[in-house]
Write a structure and sequence with these properties.
- A hairpin with a 6-residue loop joins strand 7 (about 180-185) and strand 8 (about 190-195).
- It is built from 16 helices and nine strands.
- The strands form two sheets. A six-stranded parallel beta sheet has the order 1-9-6-4-2-3, with helices on both faces. Strands 5-8-7 form a three-stranded mixed beta sheet.
- It has two domains: about 10-35 and about 215-415, Dehydroquinate synthase-like, alpha domain; about 45-210, Rossmann fold.
- It is α/β, with parallel strands linked by helices and about 425 residues long.
Length: about 425
């Protein structure tokens, strides 16, 4: 793995506080007794300017004619040439597929797979945010497994390896470049769900911080909190283990130290680099330990109202976290310390409360709405939203506090009203 040469000064400070927060905030922060398994099939290439290695990576995977799945926003912004010029200079012919929506539907994957088959593509490159990468991963699976994308929703339904997949994220958020999930809107039902399975792991991920520099502030904020949500939920997941916790903790440290700087000045390459690495590590953590109730409750916001995934997570995160505190006070208190709060001398509950305060404060600094009402969510749909959220089984099962339908409704209602109304 390659790394950028210069890191921001916050990353070079003493790590004693960080280590204390993870390992010495109580014996229960790490579960050393339960067995766990780790799958890490993705070759990761990270560094400023590393995009130039794309032809070499394609050749190493036996590819000669990739389907290039690209976020159309990159094309409108004139950033597509950053990737296409590398392919053209490497004399690699490609087929462009730019039919990607912020909340993609299953039919986009079906259409992309049909195009890849017609054009004889032998590998797939996903360039953009989580949506582009999810579409690319699903296309690669459909090209070898056949059928429709809808056939593979759920866990363990993919039986064959897909075409070789290379992911190139252009935002620091989803971590989709190292996960085994692809999330879609099901046009037939209006619901949001994922296909999950080890064959969805990309064979390679190429992370170049320079590709994130032009990301607008509001996208930087939402995707950054999305990455933080992955790390926080993986850390508190009932499936967490020492290795997933290591990735979670490092992701949290990187994001906490750099998200405000990246938001304030997108040209800050050091902050952008740290955010991209934090997003990567958050993705690794969620692939190992899973996410929780924030994600389950965010799905209906995307499926029913078209709210971008990162923004939905960001608005819900403080409210769900406050509900979750009593599920594992020790870990939430440790998280407060990781996010820069002074927890010395405080009870676990008081320390954990500081975490909620910090999450609200972070959203405020990043100009993220503090309520669902600000997103124009219809309060009359809360019951339906709760029912859908509870069907997102794995995140609900991973959550440190098991919610009832009434609990989920109460969280949504509190989030409708905004900061200062919670009291779980």
């Amino acid at each position: 793995m390659e790394y950028v040469e210069h890191w921001p000064s916050p990353l070079q400070r003493s790590r004693s506080d960080f280590c204390d927060a993870i390992f010495f905030h109580g014996a229960h922060c790490m579960n050393l007794s339960s067995p766990f398994s780790i799958v890490q099939p993705t070759d990761i290439h990270f560094g400023t300017g590393i995009l130039h290695r794309l032809p070499e990576i394609i050749a190493g995977l036996g590819g000669t004619r990739p389907l290039l799945v690209m976020d159309p926003g990159l094309i409108r912004a004139g950033l597509d040439s950053r990737v296409t010029s590398v392919l053209e200079n490497g004399k690699i012919p490609y087929i462009l597929y730019d039919k990607v929506d912020p909340e993609p539907g299953l039919r986009l994957a079906d259409a992309g797979a049909a195009l890849a088959g017609e054009e004889g593509c032998d590998c797939v490159i996903g360039v953009g945010g989580g949506s582009a990468m999810d579409v690319a991963k699903a296309i690669a699976i459909l090209c070898t497994n056949g059928g429709r994308a809808a056939d593979y929703l759920g866990l363990g339904r993919i039986t064959k390896a897909g075409l070789p997949k290379i992911m190139i994220p252009t935002s620091a958020g989803t971590g989709a470049e190292v996960t085994f999930t692809a999330v879609f809107i099901n046009e037939e039902t209006g619901s949001k769900g994922g296909m999950n399975g080890d064959p969805l792991y990309p064979e390679a991920a190429l992370l170049d911080p320079e590709l994130t520099v032009s990301l607008p502030p509001h996208v930087t904020a939402a995707t950054g909190i999305d990455a933080l949500t992955h790390a926080l939920e993986a850390f508190t997941s009932v499936q967490a283990h020492p290795v997933s916790e290591m990735y979670s903790a490092r992701a949290i440290e990187l994001i906490q130290a750099n998200i405000r700087a990246a938001y304030a000045d997108g040209r800050n390459l050091a902050a952008r680099s740290a955010m991209l690495l934090g997003s990567l590590m958050g993705g690794k953590a969620l692939a190992m330990a899973g996410v929780g109730l924030v994600h389950a409750m965010a799905y209906p916001l995307g499926g029913m109202f078209g709210i971008p995934h990162g923004l939905a997570n960001a608005v819900l995160l403080p409210f769900v976290t406050e509900y979750n505190l009593i599920g594992n006070l020790e870990k939430h208190a440790a998280l407060a310390g990781m996010l820069g709060q002074d927890t010395e001398g405080l009870s676990l509950r008081d320390a954990a409360d500081l975490l909620v305060d910090e999450l609200h404060g972070l959203n405020r600094d990043l100009n993220i709405p503090d309520s669902l009402d600000a997103l124009n969510i219809d309060p009359g749909k809360i019951g339906e939203m709760a029912d859908i959220a509870l069907t997102v089984a794995r995140p609900v099962e991973n959550n440190p506090r098991q919610p009832s339908r009434d609990d989920v409704i109460a969280i949504y209602e509190t989030a409708m009203e905004g900061w200062g109304t919670a009291g779980f």
